[in-house]
Amino acid sequence: APAGYVVSGATSITVTVSANGTSTPREVVFVFRDPSTITEATHLPDYQTFSLRSGTQAVYSGPGTEYWRAADSRASVSGGRLRVWGTIGDWALIGYGLSNNLYRIGYIERSALPSDLQVQELYLGCQTVTIVKDAPFIDDPIIKPVQIFELKSGTEVTLLAYLSDRAYIETTYENKPIRGFVRIENISKP
Predict the structure, then answer these.
(1) Which of 2, 51, 129, 165 is in Cβ range 3.0-4.6 Å of 187 for a Cys bridge?
(2) Is the CB of residue 127 less than 8 Å from the CB of residue 107?
């Protein structure tokens, strides 16, 4: 990290290079922040509702293709009414319904948002907290929470924000960074 700065988000990304020299992902971006600007986690702002312009958008758990992706790495959204809380760089934090009446919160490319939609930049917290009792990790705090995996008591995670009675956190799953939710009472006080 540059002197006096800390990395924000993933600290390592695996890059695969094919026999012909093509790398996946093609580009790796690390974001560094002045730690004095890192604020405490706050509640996510109110969302806006919108519809996608066209096409199908890949959905990742965090703002980048290096993040874990649900549905066996096929999570995507193509229509319906979506919620957007804000953007982080080239990514937008959205929520959308699934055909099985479940809901998912994740990130799509900001360019997929309607051009007339004014969306605020999100400034997430970056505090280390500890899971205080085994906690289901979910990506749907809205409709019907379904556990993706369980975080064991004692695990350190990064607290990003709050949404109703949930803590929005970042951790690692299947060797990838992942963002999602646990109950607030399952984390230590920041």
Answers:
(1) 129
(2) no
Q: What is the DSSP string of 35-76?
A: GGGPPPPEEPPPPEEEE-SSS-EE-BSSSSTTS--HHHHT-E
Three-state DSSP at 164 gives coil
Distance CA 136, CA 33 (A): 30
Task: List Cα–Cα distances, 53 to 5, 33, 64, 94, 113, in angstroms.
Answer: 38, 33, 21, 14, 7
Size of the chain, expressed as the number of residues it contains: 190
Q: Tell me the pTM.
A: 0.79
Query: What secondary structure does DSSP assign to 2-34, as a single string?
Result: -TT-EEES-S----EE-TTS-EESS----EEE-
